[in-house]
Fold these 4 entries.
Entry 1:
Amino acid sequence: MADPKRVLLAKPRGYCAGVDRAVETVEQALELYGAPVYVRKEIVHNRHVVETLSSKGAVFVEENAEVPTGSVVVFSAHGVAPEVHDQAAERGLKAIDATCPLVTKVHQEARRFARDDYDILLIGHDGHEEVIGTSGEAPDHIQLVDGPDSVDKVTVRDPEKVVWLSQTTLSVDETLETVDRLKQRLPMLQSPPSDDICYATQNRQQVIKDIAADCDVVIVVGSRNSSNSVRLVEVAVQHGARAGHLVDFAHEIDDAWLEGASTVGVSSGASVPDNLVADVLAYLAERGFGEVEEVEPVVEKLTFALPRELVRDLKAAELAKAEAK
Ligand code: SF4
């Protein structure tokens, strides 16, 4: 008799508090100010989210220079360098900052250590928007360390005054390896005051670690430019899954991946709405993987309030409406 086919469905998966807030920010801004609302960079790294918001009137741009004077611009969840705020003010834009509060926390750490004249080693991926934004807080003090193999290139002014910080969406294990290598070179290296890799990244990786060894294949829903989604596939394979694949949509699944498989793991990155996971489950069910067991080692409850500048305008609009009655 053939092995029973099943799906191990990871939870937590999908939207984190920072993504939820960023998407809601654009939706509420569209409702309040009307289209178009400009969004600098992808609000979150997910194709479906960007396409859906575009269809509602959001216009995605690369730089403030593309936004007409006086328009509303939303900054993405990944954060921006201070100069981006300055440019927006110079152009007379109404800026709403949807930077995730956990990224803002890393920016604050960078400013504080720079003020105290530390050399800051920022562990992260070269070119990622979050890294560009954080580096912009203290360009003269920050140098990027892009994984364990970059450690040998690091040079510091005073080995007793060095701290490491990190991008929020890295692999926990690889970051620890990078820090170990850094500490071999710089024994006095200080750690950030609290974890920079955010709770959502850590939780999504943890549940993948828990299920990977039981899975013949792990399918992660997420976009290629989503750092935390890509990391989930890597973690799955490192922790025992025979194979791991990243897909934006269910139709990208190759049936060959399922050949001979009895257990398929499913998860999704922090910028992925759950309807895309539902599509994957439906696709798998059609191929015999109808039994779904959800594995939830950690329960997430965190939520973030909307950006202050948006909340203020929403309240003013409410008040005006009430007075007009
Ligand atoms: S992945 Fe983490 S840092 Fe990024 S938006 Fe979500 S909660 Fe914030």
Note: Residues 99 and 153 are 30 Å apart (CA to CA).
Entry 2:
Amino acid sequence: MRQHVNPLSNNFDKFEKIISLKEMFNDSELNLHLDIGCATGEFLFNLALVNTNWNYLGIEIRERLVKTAKVKLRESKIENLYFVFGNANKILSDVQSQFILNNLKSISFNFPDPWFKKRHYKRRVIQSDFINTLSISIKKGAFIFIKTDVEELFKYMDFTLSSNLNLKKIDKNDFNYSTSFNPNRIQTNREKYVINNEFDIFEMIYMKI
Ligand SMILES: C[S@@+](CC[C@H](N)C(=O)[O-])C[C@H]1O[C@@H](n2cnc3c(N)ncnc32)[C@H](O)[C@@H]1O
């Protein structure tokens, strides 16, 4: 299976119709978390099963992975989880999706693709315009979590988010995970691999002020 798709390709100009939160979830009033680049959604399945007082939404650009996640979801009894296929940058920059941003408690970018070559930096999911769009539309007090094992990518992402005047860095040691979208510190697939291989993990939390 292809590991990367080019998010700038015309294939991703269009995306599926984004339905209302009431149609996505059994109880649309629950706290809402968005995971960008959720792959097969295993992390979100694990979260949704345990934290039934949260709703979880995943966006993933690889269609086959989203199809698999949707089939698994249909076969389960989970009602606080939903997946959308497409380029997160396009979907969340569209006016029709603003209600998602307006209702979020938190967003995670877990181990996004590094796109190492300089000429491919524009393919990175974190771009200053995109972060600006997110930071304008999310509520005050909403959190953005970033995590990666690539130090260079971390520096780039941290610079991009820190430069945004709507966001403030939160000291991890002062952060109360027990009230967050991931109270049990469940790990993503990539995170498990990174930990097993004893690579470093670089992470940061930002809050909308
Ligand atoms: C390295 S994988 C990490 C998967 C998962 N978050 C984890 O931690 O195990 C990065 C994922 O982000 C997805 N992705 C990359 N750019 C994206 C974009 N613009 N919109 C949505 N998903 C994207 C990739 O297809 C891939 O599944």
Note: The radius of gyration is 16 Å.
Entry 3:
Amino acid sequence: MKRVIFVGNIGSGKTTLSQVIHGEDIEYAKTQMVTVWGDDIVDTPGEYLEAGYMKGVLNVTAAEAQVIGLVCSAPEPRNKFSPGYGGSFAKDVIGIVTKIDIADPIQIERAEKMLRMAGARKIFKISSYTGEGVPELAEYLAESPEEADKIISGLKLRDTKVISVSKTSRK
Ligand SMILES: Nc1nc2c(ncn2[C@@H]2O[C@H](COP(=O)(O)OP(=O)(O)OP(=O)(O)O)[C@@H](O)[C@H]2O)c(=O)[nH]1
Ligand SMILES: [Mg+2]
């Protein structure tokens, strides 16, 4: 798979999506530090984006990634990237609108527009819970049709379930 880095607000769904793409059960775990999943997904803590002084760390961390995935939760209106933000990476930037299972069409459209303004060249609208849109994203990230098939057949979509909630979970 292409090496992708997920960047987005706290709770936007980066870790959950990483688990789904890797065919794992969804298990809530607050991301405390940059975490590499299977050598191809770089999962970052939302704090790095939200705390302005940490933004530079994201640019350094992204240096080896091929694709920058800007992740935005559709139902959370405070999730934002500044216009042109993706351009600071000088890489292939895609936008991933998450949680479409609990968002209305207006929220999804708002997130999509914001991600385009931030510099996303392509937008994927997904739900890690229902799996909607995940195969399209997997196809984009895979380096061959065979690899895409492998990712898609490994997705545990139907029986995906939240199996634990961390005590450190916000709210
Ligand atoms: N309904 C719904 N909930 C989701 C979806 N994706 C993630 N969630 C939930 O949103 C919460 C936050 O998800 P995470 O994947 O931990 O978010 P994150 O972006 O990794 O957050 P940080 O590690 O704090 O930066 C968890 O309770 C997830 O189960 C989705 O597609 N639909
Ligand atoms: Mg996380």
Note: The longest strand covers residues 67-73.
Entry 4:
Amino acid sequence: MATIKEVPSKTTGFERIGAHTHIKGLGLDKDLRAIKVKDGMVGQEKAREAAGLVVQMIKEGKLSGKTVILAGPPGTGKTAIAVAISRELGMNVPFIQMSGSEIYSSERKKTEVLIEAIRKCIGVEIHEMRKVYEGEVAGVDIRTTAHPYNPYQKVPESVRLTLKTTKQEKTIEAGASIAQQIIQQGITEGNVIQIDAETGRVANLGLSMESTRGKTYDVDTSEKIPRPAGDVLKEKEFVYTLTLADMDEINARNRMGGGMFSLFFGGAETKEIDTEIRTAVDESVKKLVAEGKAFIHPGVLFIDDSHLLDLEAFSFLGRALESELVPIIILATNRGVTTIRGTDIKSPMGFPLDLVDRSVIIATNEYDAESIREILRIRAREEKATVDDDALERLTGIGAKSSLRYAVQLLSLAAQNATTMKRKSVTVEDVERVDSLFMDVGEASEHLRKYEEKLMYH
Ligand SMILES: Nc1ncnc2c1ncn2[C@@H]1O[C@H](COP(=O)(O)OP(=O)(O)O)[C@@H](O)[C@H]1O
Ligand SMILES: [Mg+2]
């Protein structure tokens, strides 16, 4: 007899360990008090509690048009807190992350980059009532005719469909376009379909459980669903969520005709969208909202390293914050008092005063040794590395002396070194080795100063 052995599958899916993958939330209790170690977050309690309040207000729609500034030295968890905010907000609230440097592109205007980012953060939930024919196909009869240019070829001309629900059975006649869709989608008896009464778009919803085909075959690729209830022709509510940016794009495409251009180039290339289109989209959205057919979900635009924005960008943001359809903007910066980019005016964090004025500021502070140790422990778990106690102590010391970020990086390097040496856990030796091979910022600048005259600095 042949021996058959099962090979254990190695594919565990794509997994990437990023700098913030250990952050699962803000780690607050139900009274929004920070629990020292929770959801991958450690310490920085005040900032986390402040962020918790911000999240609550965002969820209640009370904060749109406001700015939140995260200010603190490098490596104190500003980005980590922003990531935690996005985790707390959940999937339904759009959260867009960008860096201040992204506005400097040679292809697009700075304001264009910003406005697109802003519009990606505003979700529009649209409710639409549409008339549809819906039912299980009980009979389908496609009539064909000779192709106008090629009499030997047959093309569909019309279709007679019998649709069945739990309540009634109805036979309808439809033209060539619907007949074609029926053939293309391989729709036969037993399928549950939906035909838009207005546009004639056919959707194949699956296989009816009550049909003969649905009962006979256990193995079928199509999903099994119950036979629809109610009338065959009915009004149904459809709900979909788009962002303003999506709607801009759809409108721009439609306006360009999409015809020949998309035929040859596979879709119209829209680098920049006219203000005109955006105004039209805004108007139609506002109308839908007034009619109760749409709901706005303002999301969050997080701009990391926002001291890299310049005066032009700030003034644009300031104006955008005053319009009706705006998201919550979170700015992170590690600058103290510095010049506003594009000017020689000094200002706190390098932001214009009127922007600072209308913002709430959350400060992050440097960590004590205990928090650093805990963060390193969490990171070790994230990287699936076991770390000896004394190695962890050494890393904690390095973190307190230079920076948390440097210690986090050394941890993954040390873990790599341990793997190379075929060790099960990370030892002090691993930490010392990588610490001697790599430099932290302080060492790097000392090193560069030493060779200042020999290195080029232009
Ligand atoms: N309070 C915290 N709890 C857990 N991990 C943190 C915390 N603060 C920072 N980190 C982690 O430390 C590293 C550096 O923090 P980061 O958020 O990049 O700092 P910043 O944006 O302020 O420069 C990241 O890997 C981050 O996820
Ligand atoms: Mg950061």
Note: Residues 78-79, 304, 332 surround magnesium ion (ligand 2) (CB under 6 Å).
